[in-house]
Amino acid sequence: MTSFLDNTLSPAVRGYLHTPQSPNDHALVLTHGAGGNCNAPLLVALAETFSAHGYTVLRCDLPFRQAKAFGPPFPGQAERDRAGLRNAVAAMRKMLAASADRSVRATQTEATAKIFLGGHSYGGRQATMLCAEEPELVDGLLLLSYPLHPPRTPEKLRTQHLPNLRTPSLFVHGTRDPFGSIAEMTEAIELVPARHELLEIDGAGHDLGFKGKKVLPDLPGQIVARFQGYFSG
Predict the structure, then answer these.
(1) What order of strands is seen across the sheet that includes strand 115-120?
(2) Of 162, 113, 137, 139, which Cα lies nearest the Cα of 227?
(3) Tens digit of each residue's pLDDT (9 = 90 or more) over 201-213
(4) What is the pLDDT of residue 232?
(5) CB of 158 within 8 A of CB of 166?
């Protein structure tokens, strides 16, 4: 793992790069929720596990988190956060291309390499909104605890863009998540015209069992296994 910064893009891309010992030519960009950053325990655990399975992983801070260490996203600036995700994907694509140029397998790598985008809560929601606008941006989405609605206000659904989401998506959701029940999520993701799947995490809340020192140690492996099975099909 190494720190990563690309100031040639605006917004800049900042985070940590996990480089696998045995690359599978695929890459994943991961980002955080409204109250966290790219060092969230869940993202670190997932990045390490994906990297161990051959993926190059970039954990990145959204632009609002680069601007301030604490606090929620800036009101009315979600579009800038989506631009940050777009730039993170571009930075990852550039790294993969450079790696392919140095490889004797360059032609094969270019033909088979895939880039995925993932996010927890707010980060995942922005990823879906970005891909609803740009369906060819990435090969698939990993959506952790999609914030379907604010807690205790199920009428305020965040589904307006889902009918335009044409990127294959794997949703990972806890059965005790106050931002949406499994029944609500199941109904909502049926709005997505692209291929999609829901992985239920029994007993987990919005943090998916990664809050403080309480963790679900088997969860990253479970997610990676389902991810690989889903996107290889």
Answers:
(1) 2-6, 13-18, 56-61, 27-31, 115-120, 140-144, 169-174, 196-201
(2) 139
(3) 999 999 999 886 6
(4) 86
(5) no
DSSP for the chain reads: -EEEEETTSSS-EEEEEE--SS--S-EEEEE--TT--TT-HHHHHHHHHHHHTT-EEEEEE-HHHHH-SSSPPPTT-HHHHHHHHHHHHHHHHHHHHHHHHTSTTHHHHHHH--EEEEEETHHHHHHHHHHHH-TTS-SEEEEES---S-TT-TTS---TTGGG--S-EEEEEETT-TT--HHHHHHHHTT--S-EEEEEETT--TTTT-BTTB--TTHHHHHHHHHHHHHT-
Q: What span, in angstroms and rounded, lies between the C-alpha atoms of 69 and 190?
A: 36
Q: How far apart are CA 110 and CA 130, in angstroms?
A: 24
Report the relative pairing of strands 140-144 and 169-174 from DSSP bridges: parallel
Which residues are CB-neighbours of 39 under 8 A, at least 6 positions away? 16, 59
Radius of gyration (C-alpha) of the chain in whole angstroms: 17
Q: pTM higher than 0.70 for the full model?
A: yes
**Lookup: tokens for 45:** 């655990």
- Give the Cα-Cα-Cα angle 17, 120, 89 (nearest 5 degrees): 45
Residue whose structure tokens are 């917004």: 11
The structure tokens 């989405």 sit at: 141
User: Helices 219-231 & 41-52, crossing angle to 10 degrees?
Assistant: 50
